[in-house]
Amino acid sequence: MKVKMLSRNPDNYVRETKLDLQRVPRNYDPTLHPFEVPREYVRALNATKLERVFAKPFLASLDGHRDGVNCLAKHPKSLATVLSGACDGEVRIWNLTKRNCIRTIQAHEGFVRGICTRFCGSSFFTVGDDKTVKQWKMDGPGFGEEEEPLHTILGKTVYTGIDHHWKEGIFATCGQQVDIWDEQKTSPICSMTWGFDSISSVKFNPIETFLLGSCASDRNIVLYDMRQATPLKKVILDMRTNTICWNPMEAFIFTAANEDYNLYTFDMRALDTPVMVHMDHVSAVLDVDYSPTGKEFVSASFDKSIRIFPVDKSRSREVYHTKRMQHVICVKWTSDSKYIMCGSDEMNIRLWKANASEKLGVLTSREKTAKDYNQKLKEKFQYHPHIKRIARHRHLPKSIYSQIQEQRIMKEARRRKEVNRLKHSKPGSVPIVSEKKKHVVAVVK
Amino acid sequence: VGRMETAPKPGRDIPPKKDKLPTKKKRPRRYWEEETTPTAAAASPGPSPNKKRNRELRPQKPKNTHIPKKSRVSKKPQIVKKPRERRDAEPPRSLSGAQDPFPGPAPVSVEVAQKFRRIDKSKKLPHSKSKTRSRLEVAEAEEEEISVKAARSELLLAEEPGFLEGEDGEDTAKIRQADIVEAVDIASAAKHFDLNLRQFGPYRLNYSQTGRHLAFGGRRGHVAALDWVTKKLMCEINVMEAVRDIRFLHSEALLAVAQNRWLHIYDNQGIELHCIRRCDRVTRLEFLPFHFLLATSSETGFLTYLDVSVGKIVAALNARAGRLDVMTQNPYNAVIHLGHSNGTVSLWSPAMKEPLAKILCHRGGVRAVAVDSTGTYMATSGLDHQLKTFDLRGTFQPLSARTLPQGAGHLAFSQRGLLAAGMGDVVNIWTGQGKASPPSLEKPYLTHRLSGHVHGLQFCPFEDVLGVGHSGGITSMLVPGAAEPNFDGLESNPYRSRKQRQEWEVKALLEKVPAELICLDPRALAEVDVISLEQAKKERIERLGYDPESKAPFQPKPKLKGRSSTASLVKRKRKVMDEEHRDKVRQSLEQQPQKQEKAAKPMGARPSALDRFVR
């Protein structure tokens, strides 16, 4: 007879002293871990609920402006510094870590229409309603010095926007035409027009740095190549576009914030169909800015809310609003991709977390693993109806909520009419136009 | 690969005896030195015949080649713990000149990796869009890698299972408990004990989840709980009422006792915490640890689920089969199996008012049911003196049957698939080939005669011990090879401290699985709900008035100037349409004969004269 009994030495399983860690032997045999899927599901459900519990995105409000905030700019070298221009011509520089204003300049008479920083972060440019372009030093004046711009360019017409080249000392302004300026010269290197309307914004492409995009009030988006004297091509949409923003990771993708409550992501190589139509806002979209990762963007709207969209999704993943926040005019995603700033009508700049339930500060390694594990679980079970409902639920102010209901009814009625028309006409005579193609009127080259 | 199968050429013509001398004298080589002589490379003695045989078993990889992920799993089944032999192909050198004798990742046997696999690779991926498809493929590759890693971690398991082998022709069933006790070490021998309690018997007993604690209750009201390893008594009371069944709840601190009238819950001091009057005349108790449900079957024919974490009754199901006194749970999917007096076993979940399945097992009534820990096999015994095992995967087919002289009144499966049956005052234990095989009922593995009739049976988790409650008290039998040797410390740890238990309790409560999720396949939650997907698609098509995912009709592209007349466009369009049509016809023709064959085959294996008229 040969016999062996299972006999464990307790010393191998119990810690020696109280100062030791507990011993935890593992065995990954699936029969010892039954109900793997239901238990993971419950964990995912709990993680989703906790995410909603801890969703406290609002961080700070920077007040000090005496009129609505009209434009914002990030500092290219310092994460803590942000610049803002107001409707009364005042420019303020803020320190985000201390959450206070470090410098105030009365830059223009009337609105500050646009503000942008130089790529090196040593100076910044502003344009205003007083038909001037001014360059300012980033550092304040020394003791006893006057607060004065480095350069001032007097123009003939009002400038409505400005953007700086990402690598060279060149900047572009827009107004009645798009002007490209050398920093050293007082007259533009070249000016380009296509049509006769006022252009509301101009943006340099951060990767293909000689490319520009602009949008004008005659409903078009025009693309330019700085090396040529004439514009490249333009696309005409249903309604006018307020701003565009280039994707910082994909050179040919840009997103346009439109007056028809939607945002359109275009591939500049094929402008006839937008890559994605992003709809969720219930009023005109005023500004858009990409996350540095190029995966998401944030949009500011006249409906007193900001929304975060994934680039490849047509619905927003997040909506931020507060009771006091009025029409949001400008929005920026900070360069560390963790925060969002928005400037609104009621003179405040607000700082939000980009990920609403994120814990700020240093995480311990156990916290980090738990966070990653929960994230993976949420991803795995995101399509289960119960989890989906909880993850998607957002409280909305009554005005937005009722507007959404109203617009849903309107859209449904329109769609019903279309289907009826399709049903009662000769097959093939009524073309089926997809939602993406509906909003593009024409592409001109 | 072929080159490596043979011994290295330079080594072949040098006899091994001479070969050893230069190896001893050889001075240590520095990393900046190149190979000094060609013989130095061949200095290692030629492979012994034993080693050569080993090498043939093992598929070898050419050196310095990138090993793709999939090839990590060697195709032949191997034993993991076999020492890996030296390769004669030179592995890459490190800076110090040392060679890695075991280059590349450790080999993993396919069978072990298969145990950890979650995705069924035999199922084809659904026809989906390229984006989804690539994501699925990535997930599948990741899953495979994880299963290989988990299989590799088996090396770290500390304990080996026990065994009992008879020497040439010796029948292990003839070996008495006293012999085993004599042969094993003191610690194991202490696990065999008899509690002589003739006064209050017969006894029902239950081990806690970790296998550390034992509770038993006698018909005449004696209830006790003890730490059976240290033999420390936790409580002992007399409830002054008949005790039908006893069961630990999620931890050893709570104890459910089915008494004559109602269900009572005691703590480990013996203090009565609850008297649950909604569960009356309970005959059997089962606790579902991951759902925190206490399933009770009663004389009135009701199966009641009580959620012990909130104290609510989740479901009360009427089995409509009279008195219920045979009940067991399937530990794999938490389905309750009830045995009835008409010979059927019905499967229940709290989510359904009707049984999930009914299996006709015996000609007479069912006396006992047991399900093994993998949820694959069910053993039943009936009044017809039969003992049967069933396969629970799919169609519930009987696997084997055996008539016992007395018929078994109590059945229990161990963690490693041993089946114990209590017949009168005898306990028989059968074993299978391996862990995942059904017990073969021909020859018992062990038998033991007790001092009274068996009334309750349970294998102790994580210990090679079978607890038997009988009319003479409690017997703790030694059954080598019954239990899983390696426990998981985060799941159920017999050596856990108080703090660890508290932490585990909080975690377990946080991930309490809802009762609605109990169904036959616990992995169903992770699968795609095809039915509702198709329903949603149909509704969408109806709402839109067209199918947005349908293939657009072919539109020929305009060609060069002058070549794109209307006639040629129509012709090209026609051509594509005809080709599609031909494909369709070809496919349907290919399918038709298959259908006919299928229809013809079951009709007759023998050819008939009338076959010629079949069209």
Automatic annotation (TrEMBL), chain A:
Name of the protein described by the UniProt record: DDB1- and CUL4-associated factor 13
GO MF entries: nuclear estrogen receptor binding; ubiquitin-like ligase-substrate adaptor activity
Gene name as annotated: DCAF13
Pathway: Protein modification; protein ubiquitination
Family classification: Belongs to the WD repeat DCAF13/WDSOF1 family.
GO cellular component: cell junction; centrosome; Cul4-RING E3 ubiquitin ligase complex; cytosol; nucleoplasm; small-subunit processome
Superkingdom of source: Eukaryota
GO biological process: decidualization; epigenetic programming in the zygotic pronuclei; maturation of SSU-rRNA from tricistronic rRNA transcript (SSU-rRNA, 5.8S rRNA, LSU-rRNA); negative regulation of phosphatidylinositol 3-kinase/protein kinase B signal transduction; oocyte growth; proteasome-mediated ubiquitin-dependent protein catabolic process; protein ubiquitination; spindle assembly involved in female meiosis
Ranges of the WD repeats in the UniProt entry: 62-104, 278-319, 321-362
The protein's role, per its UniProt record: Part of the small subunit (SSU) processome, first precursor of the small eukaryotic ribosomal subunit. During the assembly of the SSU processome in the nucleolus, many ribosome biogenesis factors, an RNA chaperone and ribosomal proteins associate with the nascent pre-rRNA and work in concert to generate RNA folding, modifications, rearrangements and cleavage as well as targeted degradation of pre-ribosomal RNA by the RNA exosome. Participates in the 18S rRNA processing in growing oocytes, being essential for oocyte nonsurrounded nucleolus (NSN) to surrounded nucleolus (SN) transition.
From TrEMBL, chain B:
UniProt keyword list: Nucleus, Phosphoprotein, Repeat, WD repeat
Chief location: nucleus
Chain residue ranges for the region called Disordered: 1-107, 547-615
Composition bias, Basic residues: 50-84
Biased composition (Basic and acidic residues): 10-22, 576-587
Superkingdom, taxonomy of origin: Eukaryota
UniProt function note: Scaffold component of the nucleolar structure. Required for localization of DDX21 and NCL to the granular compartment of the nucleolus. Part of the small subunit (SSU) processome, first precursor of the small eukaryotic ribosomal subunit. During the assembly of the SSU processome in the nucleolus, many ribosome biogenesis factors, an RNA chaperone and ribosomal proteins associate with the nascent pre-rRNA and work in concert to generate RNA folding, modifications, rearrangements and cleavage as well as targeted degradation of pre-ribosomal RNA by the RNA exosome.
Record-given protein name: WD repeat-containing protein 46
Species in which this protein is naturally found: Myotis lucifugus (Little brown bat)
Gene: WDR46
